[in-house]
Known about the structure:
There is one protein chain. This protein has one domain (about 30-180): START domain (Alpha-D-Glucose-1,6-Bisphosphate, Chain A, domain 4). By secondary structure, the protein is α+β, with helices and mostly antiparallel strands. About 20% of the residues lie in helices and about 35% in strands. The protein has helices spanning about 20-25, 50-55, 155-180, and strands at about 35-45, 70-75, 85-90, 95-105, 110-120, 125-135, 140-150. The protein is built from three helices and seven strands. It is globular and about 45 Å long. The protein has a seven-stranded antiparallel β-sheet, with helices on both faces.
Amino acid sequence: xxxxxxxxxxxxxxxxxxxxxxxxxxxxxxxxxxxxxxxxxxxxxxxxxxxxxxxxxxxxxxxxxxxxxxxxxxxxxxxxxxxxxxxxxxxxxxxxxxxxxxxxxxxxxxxxxxxxxxxxxxxxxxxxxxxxxxxxxxxxxxxxxxxxxxxxxxxxxxxxxxxxxxxxxxxxxxxxxxxxxxxxxxx
Length: 187
């Protein structure tokens, strides 16, 4: 099995610090099993890390930065590790809901991880880990996300990863837009 964390993630001029390498080793070292695909996405957000983290860490408000989500409600827990949320997707997508469990939330290292545990999305064994790192001299944030998911029957690894990558690109664009336009951060 290939570790996704061994992929060359830093294709931009952002310099990876020793602290970033430690977070990558600790949280982003999932292995792809046969029948799975995965990807590592790296994006620079032109906003300070505390601002980006204040949006991302809200397990109950993913629609604040993911435009393909219509809404969210907590089904169990209070937003801490182990909480379960049900997200409603906008119409036009091949699914209507997704049930997700918060697996990790590290405010010190700025790491957020969740798994899809139900719903009508075709995301069996989907696991995502996102970490944030200071970039741009403290004026920006480097967002690293790694995900792994089973390839659905009848699909190819390439098609599955392409679909997930397009969804991620959309959510990342909205994250940047939300921060720049000052989207309210509901408390």
